[in-house]
Amino acid sequence: MTIKVLPPNLSAKIAAGEVVERPASVVKELVENSIDAGASQITVEIKAGGVEQIKVIDDGHGIPADEVAVAFQRHATSKVDTQDHLDAIATLGFRGEALPSISVVSRTIILTRQPLNTAGFRMEWHWGEPKSSGVHGCPPGTSIEVSDLFGNLPARRKFLRSSTAEASRIQELVSRYALVFPGVRFQLVVDGRTSFTSTGSGLPLEALLAVYGHQATTAMLEIHDDDLETGYQVDGFVSAPSLSRANRRYMTFFVNRRWVQSRMLSYAVEEAYMGLLQVKRFPLVALNIIIPYQDVDVNYHPSKREVRFREENQVFSTVQRAVRGALVADSPVPSLASPYASDSQSTIPTPFLLRSTFSGVPNGRGMPDYSSNRIGEPPGLTDSMLSAPPLNVVGQLKQTYIVAENSVGMFLVDQHAAHERVLFDQIYEERNQKESASQTILDVVSVDLTPAQDDALKANQEELVKYGFQFEYFGDRSYLLRAVPAIFRDGDPAQSLLDVLDMTAFEGLVRQKEDVTAASIACHGAIRAGKSLTELEMVALLEQLAATPNPHTCPHGRPTMVHFSSMHIEREFGRR
Fold first, then answer.
1. Considering the domain 357-576, what is its CATH architecture?
2. Are 462 and 512 in contact (CB under 8 A)?
3. Residues 67 and 133: beta-carbon distance below 8 Å
4. Which of 189, 304, 373, 439 is packed most tightly, with the most Cβ within 10 A?
């Protein structure tokens, strides 16, 4: 093919694809512009998940009338004009790509007025082409309305999620910026209903309360840590070890008040909690890391979601130390002791006791026919095992894996994944037979939900009730929990509901509601890694796993066991 320059309208659409991935991308760019404009109030209104309409209204300093058309040209910005500015970016926006990219894939109307002017200015764009402009009455500030998003790119629209899912992404984004800009009053209106509001009082605790609710806020620890040597500063909140979640979704990081995604920062926090949280439990985190602008590259990622640090190791240690210090101040770190020491000789917290769900009597069944289902089958399971005798339990490894053997070799069974498979099949069967066991709570529990959890509850309310949850609306995002599935009878009922909602919200985009709810309940009810099991309990678990239709994987697709053949073991020891 001949090399040629792309037509302007085509190259503009390609460039817009880097900035505008989905409705939340539009909201992010417009909200950041409003913050840079000094707004004290920002209202976001969306319809149909933002596809039909997005409207962002602020009371910032506005745009001069003669500069509005220029603002919609590519690479037009008031925030960077020298190399020095580019090397130390202090604003959220700086590339001058947001407005032109948004206007190319939508119908866009801007209304803006500077406070000292008596009249405002209105301009309308259709798919990147100006349609009308002129003087127009409006309050001080800027209002941008984006409608029919991706109307000229139907292929892009097909990749969007449901309206509820897209609205949930926007709600998460608005609430996160409310955390780091407590002095700005944020309001989100979804399909005509106010979904989120922050006070804008400037008090971080009030912003935290608006996002996470009263119960979670009371368990948060405030951090304010300055590193005089580097000039770094860590501000924000982390949860006490008594409050945790089932995934990393509630770990929010800002760098110079820019919301970013960073595996390094997540790992630094998790390291600080080492020994204080159970395996696969994660804290709630809302931290702003202040770093000299010249020490962080915010022009690293096309959509500015990630940043690059000049001294990554220094940032890691600063965050880890700040979080660990807050945790130590709240609850002294337990001293280490030999794993063979008795409880009286060690200050390590006593592990949670196993809540046994086994009858304790093997049912006589052998291991399953491994040829029946090859989907997700772990390496090492072969047809030679079809006539293999039942597994004999040898012991437990790291209080996580059951070690077993038979004539074809050795098996490591993940106790959590195995029990999760057993519970999933049990729960799903009871649900199909309308026999789901429910445990009534004697003292009704009040539960405060985050916006994402509230959306998950409403979207999956029917399934949650069928599986044994009973609750009623108590105002705002609060509910009264009256019953939980029977497998949670010995646990914290409120935490059980929160964990199931977290997992449902995380997986609900790609799986059917019935599977998601059942898998979430099974995962939360299953025995955890780190639980010590008796030999009788291990035998019973293997027998119950053998009786399931698909014992090879847990409901999330992870293998339940790994096989080491006798031949392989003998070769490793030089016997073959």
1. 2-Layer Sandwich (3.30)
2. no
3. no
4. 304
> Phi first, then psi: what are they for 551, rounded to 5°?
-80, -5
Q: Where in the chain is the domain with CATH 3.30.565.10?
A: 8-197
Task: Name the token pair of 131.
Answer: 């349609």
C-alpha to C-alpha distances, 263 to 6, 11, 154, 260, 472, nearest whole angstrom: 37, 33, 34, 10, 38
Q: Phi and psi at residue 115, in whole multiples of 5°?
A: -55, -35
The pLDDT value given to residue 479: 93
**Dihedral over alpha carbons 7, 13, 16, 20 (to 10 degrees):** 180
Amino acid at residue number 280: K
Model's pTM, two decimal places? 0.66
Tokens of 385: 């095992």
Residues 6+ apart with CB under 8 A from 232: 226, 289, 290, 291, 314, 315, 318
CA 371 to chain centre: 37
What CATH number was assigned to the domain covering residues 219-330?
3.30.230.10
Q: Going by DSSP bridges, is the β-strand pair 251-255/285-290 parallel, antiparallel, or unpaired?
A: parallel
Query: How big is the CA angle at 484 (ends 483 and 487), to the nearest 5 degrees?
Result: 140
Q: State the Cα–Cα distance between residues 370 and 107, nearest whole angstrom.
A: 57
**pLDDT tens, position by position, 195-243:** 999 999 999 999 999 999 998 999 999 999 998 778 899 999 999 988 8
Residue given tokens 């910026």 in the structure block: 177
Dihedral of CA atoms 351, 355, 360, 364 in degrees, nearest 10, equals -100
